Amino acid sequence: MNTTPSITPDNAQHSTRTSARAGAEATAPAPRAVASRVRRAAVTVAAATAVLTGLALPAGAAPTGNPGDSDPAPARYTRQTLAWAPCAQQPALECATMAAPRDWHHPGTGADLTIAVSRHRATDPAARKGTLLMAAGGPGGSGLLRPADLATAAPAVGAAYDIVGFDQRGVGASTRAACQTPQEFQDFLAGDYRDQSPAAIDRVIANSRKLAAGCQERSGDLLPYLNTGQTAHDIDLFRSLLGERKISYYGPSYASMIGAYYGTLFPRRVERMVLDSNIGFDGSWETFELGQPMSFQRRFDEDFVPWLAARDATYHWGSTPEQVQAHWEQRRAALHDRPIVDGPLTIGPNQLDNGAISAIYRADFFPLLAQALTAVDDWQTADPTAKAMARKAFGQYLSPEFLAEYFSVTCSDTPWTRDLDTWVERGAQNAARWPLAGARTLAFSAVCAAWPVAPAPEVTVTGAHLPPVLMLNSVHDPATYYEAAVGAHRALRGSRLVTVTGNGDHGQYPGTNSCVTQTVERYLLDGRAPEHDLVCPSPQAG
Question: Which residue, among 46, 31, 117, 47, has the nearest Cα to 82 in the 3D structure?
C-alpha cells in the first residue's frame, strides 16, 4: 500500500501510496544495538503470541504454481441465483450478494464468505458485446458502486457492456476484516516518522505490532483467505453466476494485480483485459513497495513543487522550487515541535506528509493541496475555506477499515522480510533520501514483519493462453511507478504497454487524453489491440 510501504488512498476512480523531499536532513539512524534490542523484543512477543493463539494458516497448504482454469467450482456455489435489486446507495445499479468458500483450495473448510456484487446494464442492449468486470484498487478500496461511475465517464463502453463490480473479500459490504478502532488507528499515524531516535523507533515498532495483533484478534480466522488469489476465484464464480462463458476486465491500480492473477488462473475465460496504472505483479509486494518512496518523491519534487512555485502570487509558498522546498521543511519542522490541534483534528508532520501523498495522485488535486497549505501557514487567521480544505487534506487520510484489507493482502500475498534490524536500517536510509514516503518504511514494513499469516500459494504471472492485454501507465505515477509497469509488462507476455508521457496521474482511463481513450475503446469495442507498444503524449505536452 501502500513501504516503503506506502499506501495508496483510493480516490474517485482509482487507488494507491507515498513521498517527500530528497536530500532533506534526517536525524541519525538508531545504533544497531537499539535495532537488535527492538528486533529481539518483537520476536519474543511474536513467539509468545504464536504459542497462545497459534499462527493463522490456511487449512492444509495448497501447492504452489498456477492451477489454471480446469477445476470447476463446487456445485453448491455455481447453482446460486443472484437476487438483483436496486442498490441502496446508487439506484442506477443493481446489487446482490453471493456466497463464496472461505478457502477456494479447500472449499469445505470454514464458514462461507459473503461477496457483494453490482451491475450496470448496457444502455444499448441491441449493441451489447458482453460483460465488463471492474475491480477496485488499494488494496482496501470499495468497488461496489464503481460501475455507475465508469458507465457515466465512458458512455460508449457503458452502452456496449453490462459493467459489473464487487467489494472484494474483506472490504465494504462483503465479509469484512477489522484490525483497529479509529482511536487506535490515530496512534499508528501519529508523530513524526522521520524521527530516528531510539524512543521513536521503539514507539513506531510497538504501534506496528499492535496493529498486526489487532488484526489477529479481530479477524484472525479470516486473514489467511484475504489475498489476491482467492479474490481471483471469487471473480470466476461471479462470471459463472452471470451466465458468461468469458468476461472482459478493467482494473486500475491494485486491481491490475487482481486482473493479472485472474488472467493467469483463468486465461480462457478472458475476452479482453485493460490494466491501468500497474502494480509490479511480476515480483513481491515488498520489492514493489520499496520502489514507491522514489516515485512519490519524484512526483512531489518534479511535478507538484514546480507547479506551486509557478503560482506564488496565489499561494505565497515561494517563487522557485528551492523556496517551496525550504518552506515545506520549515513548516514541517514547526509542526514537529507544535502540531496544530483543533478539536478532533491534529495536523503534525505525518499528517502533512499524508496530505501531500494523497493529493499528488492526480494533478487536478494540486490546487486543493495548495489551498490547504495556506491554512497550515497560520491556522488562527486562515481563510475558512482554506481551513475546510486542510481538514480534508490532512485529517481524513485512509481509515482502519482500509488498512485492515491493505495489510491483509500485501503482507500475505507474497513473503516479507521479518528481520526488524533490516527495516530499522532501511527506514533510516529512506527517510533521509526520500522523506515523504520513505519516512514510513519502518512503520508499514514492521506490520508485515509481525503478520500472523503464512504467505499465500504462489501465483506466477506469465500471460500464457491470454488474448493481448492492454496496459496503461504514466511516466510519473507516484503510486504505481512506471519502472514497475515495465517489469509487469515484460512478465505478461503478449501485452501491449501504452506509455503516457508528460503526465504523472494515477489512473489514465477514462480521462481527457484522446489517444488513451481511442486506444482503450478501439480495443474494448472493436477488439483491436495495438500491434506494438505505443506512446500517448498528454494534451498539455503537445
Answer: 117
Q: The C-alpha cell of 487 is what? A: 517489469
- The residue type at 85: A
What pLDDT does residue 69 have? 53
Sign of CA dihedral 242, 246, 252, 253: positive
Give burial (CB, 10 Å; 0-12/13-18/19+) of 72: exposed
Residues 6 or more apart whose Cβ sits within 8 Å of residue 313: none
**What is the model's pLDDT at position 398?**
87
CA separation (Å) from 351 to 14, 129, 327, 392?
A: 22, 46, 16, 11
Q: Are 500 and 507 in contact (CB under 8 A)?
A: no
Q: Which of 105, 327, 489, 506 is catalytic?
A: 506
At 72 the pLDDT is 74
> How many CB atoms are located within 10 Å of the residue 192 CB?
23
Which strands sit side by side in the sheet containing 247-253, from one edge to the other? 85-86, 94-100, 113-120, 161-166, 130-134, 247-253, 270-278, 470-474, 496-501, 534-537
AA letter at 12: A
- Indicate which residue of 162, 301, 413, 477 is catalytic: 477
Question: Which residue among the candidates 253, 277, 295, 474 is catalytic per the annotation?
Answer: 253
**Which residues, at least 6 apart from 76, have a Cβ–Cβ distance to it below 8 Å?**
none
Q: How confident is the model at residue 30 (pLDDT cuts 50, 70, 90)?
A: very low
Name which of 198, 294, 227 is nearest 4 in CA terms.
Answer: 294
* Mean pLDDT of the residues in the chain: 89
Q: What is the DSSP letter of 542?
A: -
The answer to whether residue 7 scores a pLDDT higher than 70 is no
CA–CA gap between residue 137 and residue 255 (Å, rounded): 5
The string of DSSP letters for 331-367 reads HHHHHHHS-EEETTEEE-HHHHHHHHHHHTTSGGGHH
How large a percentage of the chain has pLDDT more than 90?
Answer: 84
- Based on the residue annotation, tell me whether 253 is a catalytic residue of this protein: yes
Instruction: Write the single-letter amino acid at 349.
Output: P
End-to-end CA separation in angstroms for the chain:
33
Three-state secondary structure call for residue 175: coil
In 314-468, beta strands by DSSP E: 340-342, 345-347
Q: What is the pLDDT of residues 57-99, one digit of tens each?
A: 333 344 445 555 546 789 999 999 999 999 999 999 999 999 9
Q: Are 84 and 95 in contact (CB under 8 A)?
A: yes
C-alpha cell at 356: 501531500
Q: Are 37 and 206 in contact (CB under 8 A)?
A: no
Torsion of CA 228, 234, 236, 241, to 10 degrees: -160
Would you say 397 and 189 are in contact if contact means Cβ atoms under 8 Å apart? yes
Average pLDDT for residues 153-179, to the nearest whole number? 98
